[in-house]
Amino acid sequence: MMAPKDKKLGIYVHFPFCVRKCSYCDFYSASPVPGLTDRYIEILRKHAEMLSRKTDGYSADTVFFGGGTPTLAGGDGIKRVTEILCSNFNIEKGAEFTVEANPGTVDRNMLSDIRSAGVNRISFGLQSSVESELRVLGRIHSYEDFLRSYHSARDAGFDNINVDIMYAVPGQTAGSFASTLERVTRLCPEHISCYALKLEKGTRLESERDRYVFPDEDSEFSMYLSAAERLGSAGYRHYEISNYALEGKECRHNLRYWDCREYIGLGPSAHSFFMGTRYGYVADTDQYMNSVSAGEEPFSEYETVTEHGLESEYVMLRLRLGDGISDDEFLGRFGYGFGSKYEDRIKRFIDAGMMKTVSGRYFLTDEGMYISNYIISELI
After folding, report:
1. CATH of the domain at 253
2. DSSP assignment of 302-314, as one string?
3. Sign of the CA dihedral running 136, 141, 144, 150
4. CA 295 to chain CA mean position, Å
5. Among 27, 97, 103, 251, who pairs with 145 as Cys (CB 3.0-4.6 Å)?
6. pLDDT tens digits, residue range 100-117?
């Protein structure tokens, strides 16, 4: 039996425009066109008005403005988006409000403006502190640009900052990755996301892979373990496969995804899980804007989630977390214990050192997290 709704949700807003698409990125984005940002924000206003009728009685405790490069909207654009959201949804006092930022696209004045508008968390996409690695990844910034942006955010009053970094980058070595880890931890951001580079089909890096030398599997695994060790020793809790946080600074919006709780999305390619359905919008800015302008939701997919489907998603997503799955919480949500249903399969991975169970909670070890996709596929 599924747990009752708590009448809370998260809100995701997609800003699709980028100066230049990074070589590894397969997220939907488009080149900015003069005047289009203003029109796009007005379309977001109309879409928010449409969705507000669906979400009556709900309050939002997290907001995430991602992209693309949301900071290309400028301080005034971001302030307009926050005003739109606050006018159409019940945003809780103290809600986590994140904006993604490319280093070099912000300054102190802009950051001060968006901080005063209610944005209280900034997420910088550094990826690497090594210039040659930044060039391979197609990033438009330098490490010095990142440092200026980071310190400007601190000066503007941000006390909750995330920094994204990558490993398994072409040409990266254990030493160069260690250098990035050291430089980032020295700054003491509240949150660090540490992702393995994945070659996604259709990206420029995937099509040009023969030009580069990638770290082998053993080197990649070593980088993963070194990150867990280095960040753990610096006080960061490994609370999700690719995410580390100081105490109390876990990303509340992403935790909502991983806990299968409700959220709605606005913008092309945005996804939602709301009122028992999962749906996504078209990955086309013009089509999205034309549909919303006509008073229609531009669905590209729409699915009613069954209880069996939700259970599978819950297992898959919760095992990404350091806290794993609580037997009691699973029982309350689905009517039977996780341990009793999956006992034989769990034991196999516990015996192999890939999983642990403590006080009725089942979770992956660091080694297990590295091969989580395989373990989860075997469980469900």
Report:
1. 3.20.20.70
2. EEEPPHHHHHHHH
3. negative
4. 29
5. 103
6. 999 989 999 999 999 999
